[in-house]
Amino acid sequence: MSRRTPSAGTIFWGITLVAIGGLLLARNLGYPIPIWGALARYWPVLIIAWGSLKLVDYYRTRNDPNRRPVFSGGEVAMLIFVLFAGSAITAAANISPEFGRFFDFSSDFDFWDITGSTYTYTEHHELASSAGATIKIFNLYGSVDVKPSDGNQIALDVEKSVRAATKQDADDRSKDFTFSIKEDAGAYRIASNRDEEVLGRTQIHIGNERQRYKSSLTIRVPKKALLELTNKYGTVTVTGLEGNQSVDNKFGSTSIRDITGAVTVSTGYGSVVLENISSDANVTNGYASTTLRNIGGKVNVENKYGSVDIQDVKRDASIQNRYSVINAQRIGGNLTAQGRNNSVDVDDVSGSVDVDTSYKNLNVRNARGATKLSNRHGGIDFELEQPPRNDIRINAQYSDVTIEMPAGSAFTIDAHTRYGDIDSEFDSMSSNSSGRERSLRGQQGTGGPHITVETQHGNIRIEKRG
């Protein structure tokens, strides 16, 4: 009885399904893999690879009397399905950016970038305003750069591009796409005529037609102006202002520097950099990094899928982040960090430290206040250059714990592990074991704080420094 040779196409689709399933599982577990954006662009590669394997099948079995047809009925149906599904996803991505956001398409996926030509135009507008005026800025598909002016004047320079089939068509469209500065109930509003109708809406639905028009704004405002800036699909930079500033930017990076006042930033799919902010800084971000330097007030960061790096904060700092690195250095107040599937590195905190994370290492150095650390499936390293002065509580699961302190430290310790070992370089500690349990208790020196360590399936080590 003859046996048919397995089809390379069948093996190909088996491998493809396993790969796609693995990527979707990884994405559900929190890894920021741009599956749908890549699929919208590169799905024809599946057809090319499949066709190549079918050619291999043909030449491999062309002399086999029992060979099967090159394409079975089921494979023809699958081919039609892939063609329609891939074309539908690509077309839908061009119809609406909101659809693209649902599937995580990047902001540069634009149908009009592959058809027609680009024509560039400029505008200039000026309007006198009060020194501490509130200025509302709205823009789509372009960058916004805001700097202080020499006086109480708002100056707007617009560089706009229009995608069209002919120069005449672009000229006509440019006349129907203009910006203005308008006074509105004591505030000032900067927006284009095409975007004014969506101001104030919670959800903005702009079709593919708006993607024909790109607009980059350079704005000079009074130094004490208060900004309420909304932008999408472009970068935002703000420098040198006095007063509280608010920025909502999607699908683009945000950079704010040298602000005398507080700053609030809400963004997604774009990095955030705040430097030299004299008061509080509040950042809500997703899918991109957040970097803060030299913040004079409190810091609050809510982030996911992007690293958080804060340094030189004068007061308290609170961080919530998932699936990426947290780094906090030189915090003048208390530090609270809530993580998930991410490593945390902390150095030099004047106040208390409360950190909870999982699956990656947690490293804390020079925490001078009361400390509470929790980790699961990741090691905990706690180091002090000076003897501890406040209580330390460490809880871990499936994690090793290492504590390093100066030789002259004074403290009371109560450490316990299950399914692990305990080792101490301080001689005054007494260890006990009972079955799977290990414990370490004792007093080192006179007085000092209380150190509590609890772990399961992990080792505990207490080391002397210096």
Outline the fold blueprint.
Layout: H1 8-28, H2 35-42, H3 44-61, H4 73-95, H5 97-102, E1 117-128, E2 134-140, E3 144-148, E4 153-164, H6 167-175, E5 179-184, E6 187-192, E7 213-221, E8 226-232, E9 236-239, E10 245-250, E11 254-259, E12 263-268, E13 272-277, E14 281-284, E15 290-295, E16 299-302, E17 308-313, E18 317-320, E19 326-331, E20 335-338, E21 344-349, E22 353-358, E23 362-367, E24 371-376, E25 380-383, E26 392-397, E27 401-406, E28 411-418, E29 422-424, E30 430-434, E31 437-444, E32 450-456, E33 460-465
Parallel strand pairs: 2-6, 2-8, 3-7, 3-9, 8-10, 9-11, 10-12, 11-13, 12-14, 13-15, 14-16, 15-17, 16-18, 17-19, 18-20, 19-21, 20-22, 21-23, 22-24, 23-25, 24-26, 25-27, 26-32, 27-33, 28-32, 29-33
Antiparallel strand pairs: 1-4, 4-7, 5-6, 28-31, 30-31
